[in-house]
Specification:
By secondary structure, the chain is mainly alpha-helical. It has helices at 3-31, 38-57, 59-70, 76-94, 97-120, 123-144, 149-157, 163-186, 202-216, 251-269, 286-300, 304-317, 327-333, 351-366, 375-387, 413-432, 436-441, 446-457, 465-473, 480-494; strands at residues 223-227, 232-236, 239-244. Bound molecules: zinc ion.
Length: 496
Amino acid sequence: MDDDTRRFRQWSREVQDLIRVVWLLDWDQAVLMPPAGVRQRSEQLKTLAGVLHRRITDPGDGEVLERVAARADGDPDLAADVRVMRHRRDRALKVPADLEAERARVCGLAQREWERAREAGDFEAFRPYLEDVVRLVREVGLALDPEHPYDALLDDHEPGMTEAALRPLFSEVEDRTRGLLARVQGSGAVVNRAVFERDYPVADQEAFARRLAADLGFDFEAGRLDRSAHPFTAGSFRDVRMTIRHDPGNLATALFATLHETGHALYEQGIDPDRERDPSGQSCSMGIHESQSRLWENLVGRSRAFWAFCLPRLKEAFPGRLDDVDTDAIARAANVVRPSLIRVEADELTYNLHILLRFDLEVALIGGRLAVADLPDAWNEGMRRMLGLDVPDDRMGVLQDVHWSAGMFGYFPSYTLGNLYAAQFFGRLREEVPDVDARIARGEFGCIREWLSVRIYREGRRHLPAELCERVTGRPLSVDPLFDHLERRLSEVYRF
Ligand code: ZN
């Protein structure tokens, strides 16, 4: 390895380390930090954002980057690392260091205020903080792309994606969701979730979640499972941290959160060990990340085969609670379609309507067409239009998600993209592993992990998400696989 390449490797790996330290502080804030620590922590986040910015924009390392780029063609991994670092550097050079640091500080504070405001259902208490976040994030977006600030923010989560490319995709998702919802509602079939809504002690739920995560392949030597106000996964490789939340009267909350977060965690634990500190050794995009969580949560976790595996284990873990329930009954209960207020608990079909609403609202906020003060009304009006529901209070409405308080604008589309990618990936997997259902029913999840590992985990960030999708499935991203899957599954459950 020549001197330039060595220096490039050191620089890119230091940047990667700093990014991971920020993740760790974020996790600590959400899970362990005492409430009074928030101001100190937000100053630490501000300092680190400044350090990271200076490290990425270092002029000497920038020159090395260009020299390495000029002769990286023969080495695809090095060329991919150069591409990722050049993108990070170009981005950082456009955003003043002070702005990036101030955004980090304000988002640190706003997350704690969001948690309090959500608990109290008090949007007014949170409003000034969210106004600061939106103002700063919008400034960042405008610094990156004065014409299309939202696209610049979207690109942070889904490289190469634009609002213009999402619009037709999302409008097809909306139309086909409405069509299928009308068929479900017109079927007359009565399906409910009552089996999940019995008394399930939280301690037993927690033990079951750990066992399920391990069954799916989560390595507890290289990860943790904790509680937080909003389920999420942070960290990577040999230190992957999942959080979930429990509802004593609803087993489905923790169960599906475990499936979802374990999907994220398996992706992170599965990254190429030889490239774990390299920029293109990381996950491809947040859309691909959400495809991994939604694949385990929905394609696997709502299948009849999964419940054939899971129900006997549930009966063992919760003696006497499920004696009257068989596989068909619980599999149907896992697929109830009912427009509801909370995104993370939404059914597989109407889930995307929640995302489409958030997408419209955040595009308007970043575009300066919607004021934060008008956000609750716009939310409530949107919920009526999209899902036909009245929102009783802001806790069940605009305050339910952590993303905007954390400055994560442009993230929400990742979920619907993830649903689309997941169905397309799983369709391909099914062609190559025809007995996948029989294996799921026996709890043999290794075949799914191995398939994903070769095609997705270990590919890291070598390709843009759109390219990865074509490589894995042989065709560009399409709405068809998701709706083919939903139609097959829901016609069984609702017998239409
Ligand atoms: Zn997720």
